[in-house]
Structures are given as structure tokens and as C-alpha cells.
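Submission checklist for the structure archive. All mandatory fields must be present; incomplete records are returned to the submitter.

[x] Identifier: FMN reductase
[x] Organism: Alkalibacterium pelagium
[x] Residue count: 188
[x] Sequence attached
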Amino acid sequence: MNITLLSGSTIGSKTRTAMNYTKDIIERNYPEHEVTLLDLADFELVFSDGRDFREYKGDTKVVTETIMESDIILIGTPIFQASIPGSLKNVFDLLPQDGLRDKTAGILVTAGSAKHYLIAETQLKPILAYMKAQIVQTYTFMEERDFYRKEIVNEDAVFRIERLVEDTMVLAETYKEARRIKEEQYGF
């Protein structure tokens, strides 16, 4: 399966740090899968203007096509001003309305405080559901205190990332098998 890790901010280091840990866990535990880490800080994306995602050029084309070719997307997002970053929302706007159909999506949130725990529930999950993703219901939430000098210092936070990866892989495999069985029923 193609797995894309999307670090959804153009600034800061905590989300990227968490996504690096996530990538290492996937590569160690699921080496048979292809993993791509897209950090929006490394790309210059244009703002969505309603065009089909295939009509964009440069970095925008790379990011959107990578996501569209993915089976699994693990989205890492910081919380700014009690919301997901505009850079992450722009990525969703660049994709088709049902662009996440048949894709499994997991969520990893980094925030300055526990006050932002429900942002994923109230903002990110509705977007993913609207775009037809199969969403891992539990997500990983990490706070400022879980990090020190671009390292995760809370062992429980690392365990939660491992659990998110495992839950995401199980859900993706389950949906893949269910789709296979359904397609076999058509008989052609």
C-alpha cells in the first residue's frame, strides 16, 4: 500500500518531529509498504482556485497527486488559533470533493495545550468524512510538554503514535478486504 504522511503546516517543528517518529515506526513495523512524508514546509503550494487537481503545476501537483495515489494518509496538524492551519485546509481545497474515497485517514495533532483537544473532532474529522475518507476514530494528541529539542520525551506519546499506526493499518487492511469481497460479488 502507498502511505502518505502529511505534515500540515509551513512553520514549527513539533508536527514534523511527530511525523518523523510516525515514519520510522511504519518503516520498522510495515517495511513492505511504500511511505512518503510530505511536509508542507518543504513545498510552495498555490491557493486553490477550483481547478482539477491534475491541472496544477510544480509543488502543488506533486502534493496533490501523491495524496490521490495514496491508500493511507496520516495527517499531522498543529493547532493555531483553535483551528487547523490554513495551509492544511488549502490542501483539502485542492483535492476533489470525494478525493479521499477508499483511503484510510489517521490523525495526529500537536498543540500548545490540552484546551485544543477537540479541534480534530470538530474541524478535521468533518472535512475528512465529507471527502469520503475512512477515518480512524481515535487520534493521537500531543502537547508542548511531550517535546524537547525536536525530540519526543514522553514515552506514552510514542506509544500513542505506535497505536495510531497499528489502528490505521488494521482499518486499511479491513476495508481493502471488504472491497475485494464486494467486487467479487459482481462476477465480472
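[x] Structure attached
Curator remark: The chain has a mean pLDDT of 96. The chain has one domain: 2-184.
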